[in-house]
Amino acid sequence: MNKEFATTFFSKREFTFIDESPTNNLIVGTSRSGKGEIVVLSMIENYSRSSEQPSLIVNDMKGELFSASYKTLENRGYQVEIFNLDQPMESTMSFNPLQQVIDEYMKGDLGEAQEMTKQITYTLTNNEGVEDNEWNLMAGALINAMILALCEETLPKNPEKVTLYSVSNMLQTLSTKRFYKEIAIGNKVQLIEVSALDEYMERFPSHSPAKTQYATVQAAPDKMRSSIIGTALKALQPFTTDTIAKLTSHTSFDINKLGFPSIIDGYATKDSTFELGVQVFKRW
């Protein structure tokens, strides 16, 4: 053993040393065997006592960990927030899953906005356990198109309209409406039946990210399109209830606060000036 390490170690016998490396632990026990009491609450206790307090994200299925620790955490300087999908009215915070998409889009970074959109829709639609995952991937492309279309139409003036609830409502409304449109074919004018969804997407320029994402869905046969739309609406269904819609209607905190008490955020505006913002946050 290194002499210097040994001297330091034994001189701090009243301290608990915390392993900062990425660690995964599997705790196995029957219901009510004390997994939370013995292991999780002990970890919360030790981490919150540390000289450099980390941010804590606790998945608390029963609410027992919160009840047992929130007063202690607040006394130690933590800002404690609840995000409860089971009982949304008990939540102390709101979170819009599309917030980072909105932020990147408003900065003008369309590439990053598209990547974040794909990550969200992949989480909503991907199911590698099914025999044919192609339906889910196509449904993801459709949701991508609707999110990006909503961003293009409402930003930067109305960011509050870019939510998954709005995406679901817009898709449901447009996908169920059809109407007749006059098309000039040579010297004749012919009436053809068109989809409101197709007509809506035609409004965007050919280079639009929304239109690019929609192209694969538009090229699909009618029967296949019906299945794609149904799969997309099913993926969005959890966000259509009133309580979840309110819970995900806006973001009440910046997720960059987690783990990073200081943030330097810089970006170039359209007139090429450079804005630099420094934000200092409390622990979460």
Textual characterization of the structure:
It is a single chain. This protein is mainly alpha-helical and 284 residues long. It folds into three domains: 3-81, no CATH class; 99-247; 260-284, no CATH class. The chain is built from eleven helices and four strands; from the N terminus they run αααααααββααααββ. It has helices at residues 3-11, 35-49, 64-75, 99-107, 110-125, 134-154, 164-175, 196-202, 209-218, 222-236, 242-247, and strands at 178-185, 188-195, 262-268, 274-280. The strands form two sheets. It has a two-stranded antiparallel ribbon with strand order 1-2. Strands 3-4 form a two-stranded antiparallel sheet. Strand 3 (262-268) and strand 4 (274-280) form a beta hairpin. Helix 2 packs parallel to helix 3, helix 4 (99-107) runs antiparallel to helix 5 and helix 7 (164-175) runs antiparallel to helix 10 (222-236). The two termini are 37 Å apart. Mean pLDDT is 87; it is low at 272-283.
Strand tally is 4
What is the residue-averaged pLDDT?
87
Radius of gyration: 25 Å
Biggest beta sheet attributes: 2 strands, antiparallel
Strand content: 5-15%
- General shape: elongated
Low-confidence runs of at least 5 consecutive residues: 272-283
User: How helical, in percent, are the residues?
Assistant: 40-55%
**Structure class:** mainly alpha
The separation of the N and C termini measures 37 Å
Along the chain, the helix and strand elements come as HHHHHHHEEHHHHEE
Number of helices: 11
Write out the strand line-up for the largest beta sheet, numbering strands in chain order. 1-2
Query: How many domains in all?
Result: 3
